[in-house]
Structures are given as structure tokens and as C-alpha cells.
Amino acid sequence: MSDSAARPLATARGRRTPATLKRQHRAAFFFLLPACALFSLCVLYPIIDSVALSFYDWDGMTPKTFVGFANYIELFHADVFYVALKNNLIWLAVFLLAPPLGLAFALYLNQQIKGMRIVKSLFFAPFVLSGVVVGLVFSWFYDPTFGLLKLFVGHGIPVLGDPHTVTFGIVFAALWPQTPYCMVLYLTGLTAINPEVVEAARMEGAKGVRLLWHVILPQLRPATFMAVVLTVIGALRSFDLISVMSGGGPFDSSTVLAYYMYDQAIKYYREGYSASIAVVLFAIMLVYIVFHLRRMLREER
């Protein structure tokens, strides 16, 4: 075939006609349609409906009554709201220990040592336990009459009965399953590290902390982003351990926004007020995640 005949054929193969583009766009639309419909039904609609419900007074049975911003005004004047917000900040500060602890365990478990698979399974075991089981285990651990904490300290300490210690006791119980979760994320990231880059850094004299900080951690940035974001979300939506271990008490001293929202909706039938708490909690999560995501994208560029 001559060059003059082959050139139009190659051009026709490399160029997509409007009809071909239209078929591809239509196929992409139909492939995305089920996922978009499910996302709209299960995520977007509940968010929009919760925001709308927050402007109503409703007990879940009688007709709704529009009250405007009355639920938000009451919320920002309630003392329990600020106690819950403070406890959420405590959860966030202590819970952020999970990513560095998970990284330390991942670096240890990433070694090629005999029997390491058994050690990995032991470290991973807390993650597969439900929150109810973890709450019950640590409730027995903290029990001042027969708990294991009494054996270590020598006398009983009412961790869950003291308003000053109950939140910290529950947060440290939540760290037990959260740390293995971050560890798994970092173990996955360590398998994707380029060994040639690490070897080149070692040949240049980098080792120890310098190798970790300048070579390994930059390649673990996606895993760090996921670990931090999921840890923050877990700290802000903490509910199950509080429900099992303290029920928000004593005297609402351990309640958080998620449990306060549940308390108002289920116990007192204040669906509109509960929706306003949910909107505030969602706004806090959204602001943090958007800020962290933009920061990560800026660093990547």
C-alpha cells in the first residue's frame, strides 16, 4: 500500500467522528447512571432532607411546623451542645494518635521475619471486632471492683463514673481498633513503595529517621491522607462506644454531637432539633475534609 493511501486510513483510525463520540458519551452515561442514582438516593437526598427538616418542629408523627432558625438558636444556646463539641475536640485530638501509631506498627510488621504473619493477625484482630464488643471489653477493664485496671494500679478507679476521666477512657478504648485500621492502610502503602528509590537513598547515606522522613513518608502521602481523613471522620461520628460504655453520662459529661443527636431524636422525639445537630456536625466534617483535600492537592502540584 502506498504512503498516500495509508495516510488517510491512519487519519481515519486516529480521529473519532461525532457519531463515535456520541455513542461513547451515551455508553459512559448509562454506565454511570446506576451509581449516580444510588448516590443521589442514599447520600444526596438524606443530606438535603436533613437540612430542610432542621427548619421544622416535628416529633415524627404529627404534622411538621415550620420554625425557621429556632432549632439552631436553641442549639447554640444549649450548654450540652458545647459540652458535646468540646468532647468531639478531645476525641479528635486523641484519636489523631492512631495514624502515627499505625505507621509505627506497619513499619515493624513490614519486616521479613519468620512468624510475622501470626503477629500481623494479632495486631489486626481488634479491627474486626464490633464497637459493642470493644465497649464491653473496656467496660470490664475499667470496672473499679474486678477490672484489670485495678490489678495494674493497685486500687479501683471509677474511670467511667468520673466526669473528668470518662471521655478519655472511651477515646483510648476507641484507639484500640482504630490503630490497626491505620496500620492496614500503611501496610498497603508500603507495598507500593519503589524499592529502587529507597536503595538509592541508602547508597547516598540516608538511614533511620532521615530515610523515613525524606524518602518513605513522601511515598506514603496517599495512605496518610486516607488515614487522617478516616480518623477525623471516625472521631466526629463516634457513637457506639459512648452508647455502650457511658450512655453519654455521667450528667452528659461524655456526650458528643452524634450521641446528642441520637438522644434528642430517639428519646425526646425532637426530629427537627436532631436534624439541626446533624447539619452542624456535617458542616464541621465538610470544612475539615475540604481544607485537608485542597492542602494535599496543592502539595502534590
TrEMBL record:
Superkingdom field: Bacteria
Pfam family, one: BPD_transp_1
CDD domains recorded: TM_PBP2
GO annotation terms (biological process): transmembrane transport
Main location: membrane
Gene Ontology cellular component list: plasma membrane
Signal peptide: none
Keywords carried by this UniProt record: Cell membrane, Membrane, Transmembrane, Transmembrane helix, Transport
Residue ranges occupied by any ABC transmembrane type-1 domain in the UniProt entry: 84-294
Protein localization: Cell membrane
Topology of this chain in the membrane: Multi-pass membrane protein
Coiled coil (residue ranges): none
InterPro entries cross-referenced by the UniProt entry: MetI-like, MetI-like_sf, UgpAE/MalFG_permease
Transmembrane segments: 27-48, 89-109, 121-142, 168-190, 211-236, 272-291
Gene3D superfamilies documented for this protein: MetI-like
Family: Belongs to the binding-protein-dependent transport system permease family.
Descriptive protein name: Melibiose/raffinose/stachyose import permease protein MelD
Species name: Paraburkholderia saeva
Gene: melD_4
